[in-house]
Amino acid sequence: MASSTSIKSRHVAVIGAGAAGLVAARELRREGHSVVVFERQKEVGGTWIYTDHVESDPLSVNPTRLVVHSSVYDSLRTNLPRECMGFRDFPFAIRSGESRDPRRFPSHGEVLAYLQDFSKEFGIEELIRFETTVVRVSPAAKTDGGERIGNWRIESTEKEKKSHHRDEIYDAVVVCNGHYIEPRLAEIPGISSWPGEEMHSHNYRLPQPFKDQVVVLIGNSSSGDDISRDIAGFAKEVHVASWSNPADTYIKQTGHNNLWMHSMIERVLENGSVVFQNGKTILAHVIMHCTGYKYDFSFLDTNGSVTVDDNRVGPLYKHIFPPALAPSLSFVGIPCKVIPFPMFELQSKWIAGVLSGLIKLPSVDDMLMEIKNLYATLEGEGVPKRYTHSLGINHFEYNDWFASEYGCSGTEEWRKEMFLTSFMRKMEHPETYRDEWEDHHHLVAQAYQDFSLYIS
Ligand code: FAD
């Protein structure tokens, strides 16, 4: 820890006003920094701002397409219980009000309303420049009387004012731009001459357009799971292909007459057939890639200090600071397979403390060594690069490290148990896990006991 006399207040740019950017802005301001948040949409909430609009290119590969930020579909409900999902000191508790959704696994609209509440409660909107896109972030070379002022140059453009191009200097940049926008696609032998339609789940909103069609989905993570069931209510047949299934997998899903699980697609043919590794062949109208997303920081110029290689963003100390540019450049929200909001909160507290000098980072060499060791461990365990940021159950330890550095309490036991319980229930009862919670009321009671500190 530094002495209080050496605490510094920085001028910080936060890119994005989704859940990560909102809590980053709050923590930075609490720590005494001056904060400007850049947000290209016209409201807060990021990916939770549902829109009917989809991109003109259903696969989202055309670089000139108009990007639609949200990947949320109409029927989406959270895949985590609300109590466990919310920020630590602003509980995602059931709130009264006509348009509120009181369910434990509420709809996307309830999450958006919660983020709007958060923004109002902490006065974050006054820090945000809406409809302002950051087009370039690059190292600053600006000096004042020979003294270098600030580390980063931020170029931004305001919508409706195409000519309004701002060029400013900041001490630090916190990147909170989200990573569910740039689709990742499966490679399918024969796809260039397959006559059907292809799309990515990023552009899925409603099941009705799939009425009477034969649809193949690739991937059975959260989105693939939800969307296959959504579509099965309208389509003639739905077939889910997954890498994680053994080669002979062919299972009819319980509760549906028209939904099958398969192993991965082996190839597709010019006559419209899809051939699975299990030997089954079907004629399909649509292939939907539910295959996740790529990290993308195309606005960021670090002269090669930060790269994205097979979805590994690096090198990043604690998945946050590139050692060579620390602490003036940081990223909130890179890890996945986590409970996002509380992790964003702890990462942000730590970043704010590091920027003010209250928390000290190790030397650049030591940070690089830790990253090198992480990569070596992952390689030794046979984990592909693209899973570098996939923390899963380890994310509690990860979060608790920030908590101890910052000097606040670690993850609550009830939150850990709720996460694990809901994960297991999702595996065992994917159809009903959101609406059956009978055995776990003690966890909810413990959560609300903690929440009583923050809600009256
Ligand atoms: P985002 O919400 O994507 O926000 C990023 C913001 O940055 C956006 O507002 C964007 O407009 C802005 N931005 C980006 N680039 C620029 C730029 N150049 N200039 C200016 N502004 C910019 N999480 C859960 O906890 N529970 C769930 O049930 C859950 N379900 C999910 C379901 C789906 C389909 C998806 C895609 C995600 C889900 N998540 C869930 C994860 C979710 O993404 C996180 O909870 C969280 O909302 C991500 O917040 P973020 O701020 O990192 O990113």
TrEMBL record:
Short name of any one Pfam family annotated for the protein: FMO-like
InterPro entries in the record: FAD/NAD-bd_sf (IPR036188), Flavin_mOase (IPR000960), Flavin_mOase-like (IPR020946), FMO-like (IPR050346)
Signal peptide: none
UniProt entry keywords in alphabetical sequence: FAD, Flavoprotein, Monooxygenase, NADP, Oxidoreductase
GO molecular function per UniProt: flavin adenine dinucleotide binding; N,N-dimethylaniline monooxygenase activity; NADP binding
Cofactor needs: FAD
Entry's EC annotation: 1.-.-.-
Lineage: superkingdom: Eukaryota
Record-linked PANTHER family: DIMETHYLANILINE MONOOXYGENASE
Protein name: Flavin-containing monooxygenase
